[in-house]
Amino acid sequence: MTAKAPKESRTIMTDLVLPSETNPLNNLFGGELLARMDRAAAISARRHSRRIVVTASVNHVAFNSAVPLGSVVTVEAKVSRAFRTSMEVFIDVWIEDRESGARTKANEAIYTFVAVDETGRPVAVPEVAPESDLEKERFAAALRRKQLSLLLAGKIKPQDATELKALFI
Ligand SMILES: CC(C)(COP(=O)(O)OP(=O)(O)OC[C@H]1O[C@@H](n2cnc3c(N)ncnc32)[C@H](O)[C@@H]1OP(=O)(O)O)[C@@H](O)C(=O)NCCC(=O)NCCS
């Protein structure tokens, strides 16, 4: 399988924040943002693998800034690294100033998707060939994040988390 650049899986979804999607402070409800990010990330993983994909794990979410009612929110997802059957998808969330149009980074998240066949069995996916400095940085750190996720899920033993251990040696 030929490796693919992250730009080939780039997925951008822009939408408004409506009253039914807010919390009592009139900011976007966290679960609504998680769902928007999951949708964009799923499309991104599907573009990379051209397969059915399922969310295996949400590795990291940072709700750094509140997103007020009426905001124009852009969710941008790209596959940052692929392993055998799993893909790490990096999601950046931007809000747009109404008057100037300037974009501010509000949140980010990292999801893991797995490509599966029609019976739900994991299948192999193409590798990622990062291009920009940011893509290379995210690619390099992805194995560490995968090991952390598997460790927290109880799917690997601490002694097998070699990339994580290397951080502390
Ligand atoms: C995700 C799923 C396909 C993994 O199945 P599995 O039997 O654990 O399969 P494997 O052990 O072969 O793992 C498949 C890949 O997922 C990765 N993976 C599994 N759990 C993971 C986790 N918590 N974090 C990161 N990666 C994970 C494995 O490392 C492996 O990656 P690799 O092939 O790239 O090395 C399966 O658990 C599943 O179908 N879950 C439900 C998915 C779903 O319905 N999501 C929506 C929730 S509402």
TrEMBL record:
UniProt entry keywords in alphabetical sequence: Hydrolase
Protein name: Acyl-CoA thioesterase
CDD domains for this protein: BFIT_BACH
Keyword Hydrolase (UniProt): yes
GO molecular function per UniProt: long-chain fatty acyl-CoA hydrolase activity
InterPro entries in the cross-refs: Cytosol_ACT, HOTDOG_ACOT, HotDog_dom_sf, Thioestr_dom
Organism: Pseudotamlana carrageenivorans
Family, similarity comment: Belongs to the acyl coenzyme A hydrolase family.
Stored Pfam families: 4HBT
Listed GO biological process terms: acyl-CoA metabolic process; fatty acid catabolic process
Gene Ontology, cellular component aspect: cytosol
